[in-house]
Amino acid sequence: MIPRAIPRVIPALLLRGRGLVKTVKFSDPTYVGDPVNVIRIFNDKEVDEVVLLDITATRERRPPNFELLEEISSECFMPLGYGGGVTTIDQMARLFAIGIEKVVINHAAFDSPQLIHEASQRFGSQSVVGSIDASRRPIVGGYRVYDHVMRRRTDREVEALAVALQEAGAGEILLNVVDRDGTMTGYELPLVSRVSQAVDIPVIACGGAHTDQDFRLAVDAGASAVAAGARFVFQGRHRAVLVNFPERSALERLFEAHVPA
Questions:
Q1: How far, in Å, CA of 159 to CA of 145, rounded?
Q2: Which amino acids are annotated catalytic?
């Protein structure tokens, strides 16, 4: 019998230099381990997919660390997505050549989605993920796109950018919320719902997961998949570093109502 599909649950790992870190609201990075070792653990846990984001490459105006990524990819037995410092089609081609299956585009598509359009035409939309960082406006309400390079909230509407990325050819949207990042207080469900309704492509909710029930709530809100960082690298109230992932049987029970017969 072929296993029934369930919503994807994706570890989102943050690369800083040659090590993995976890941030809180995009600040205060805590070292959590060597990327190759962490990938090996996720291999053993039979994780379906992993996304790796270099959080300093774009800010430092440098390309991806291809040598390190090739080392990581060679140890990764699951689909691996990568984002950070990607600004050209040639860089994307090189990433695919070393085993990266999806390229995540964030800042390079902020002003113009042309790179995503060109990439989707050449490599296929399934290989291109449009990434949006969002932030709440505390007084007037609503959400706006956050520029992680300039470290500021912009005036751009999140849903409008999601639609633009879809129209450019992105195969899915990675939606991360700055205010929830690393807080383990649950996903920003109203925004997940709004973005999921605005586009026809899969939306991956990211930022804030604490318990497995948070995954279910995000899917109920409209997400096609969920990603998390702190949930998979910390354990306990003191946030001790411990790489972990739910058993597949637990995820199947969690998403039972969403699994087709």
A1: 9
A2: 133
Query: What distances in angstroms separate CA 72 from CA 18, 36, 77, 237, 243, one per listed residue?
Result: 11, 5, 10, 30, 17
What does each of the 261 residues of the chain score in pLDDT, given as a tens digit? 345 589 999 999 999 999 999 999 999 999 999 999 999 999 999 998 999 999 999 999 999 999 999 999 999 999 999 999 999 999 999 999 999 999 999 998 887 789 999 999 999 999 999 999 999 987 666 899 999 988 899 999 999 999 999 999 999 999 999 999 999 999 999 999 999 999 999 999 999 999 999 999 999 999 999 999 999 999 888 789 999 999 999 999 999 865 544
Other Cβ atoms within 10 Å of 29 Cβ, number:
17
CB distance 237 to 210 below 8 Å: no
Name the residue among 46, 43, 44, 93 with its Cα closest to residue 73. Answer: 43
CA 221, CA 216: separation in Å to the nearest integer?
A: 9
* Domain extent listing, the chain: 8-256
Which residues are within 8 A (CB) of 224 and not within 5 positions of it... i.e. 6 or more apart?
7, 8, 172, 196, 202, 203, 204
Q: Looking at the domain covering 8-256, what would its CATH class be?
A: alpha beta
Residue with tokens 């972990």: 244
